[in-house]
Amino acid sequence: MNYVIRDAREEDMTQVLGLIQELAIFEKEPDAVEITVEELIREGFGDHPLFHCFVAEVKDEIVGIALVYYRFSTWQGRSVHLEDLIVKESMRGTGLGSALYKEVLKYAQSKGVRRVEWVVLDWNTAAIDFYEKSGAKLLKDWYLVQMDQDGVNKFVSKS
């Protein structure tokens, strides 16, 4: 299969959002995506982009993405967080995900970070197996903690 992995451009964001929505369906959260194409463009491009996105393209169609951004660890310093690696369902098993993953790791290496990190759902055994075989460590003694906007508002408004 011939594919190209490249940096995303503003005009790619409609297709990127389509893959994000496909991921939400795969993760059993079909109504969870609130972000818009306009937000992706505003936050990912310009003077101070909040993320970097790679796209995998086959015949002018974006069939995979990897979206990353910097985090800061008090122990390790700057790290790269892989927010999502998405491959269109029809392209899974072709090596495209592995190529995107390698591109992320090469990006992190070029930036001189000491760590790359991401989260994976506990039921996504194919991804877990792939990551473990690649040498990544699953930290099973840590919990992912999140608070949505409503929770923040409720907590902050408490007297």
UniProtKB/TrEMBL annotation:
Record-linked Pfam families: Acetyltransf_1
Entry GO MF terms: N-acetyltransferase activity
N-acetyltransferase domain location: 3-152
Keywords tagged on the record: Acyltransferase, Transferase
CDD domains in the cross-refs: NAT_SF
Family membership: Belongs to the acetyltransferase family.
Protein name: GNAT family acetyltransferase
Organism: Aquimarina atlantica
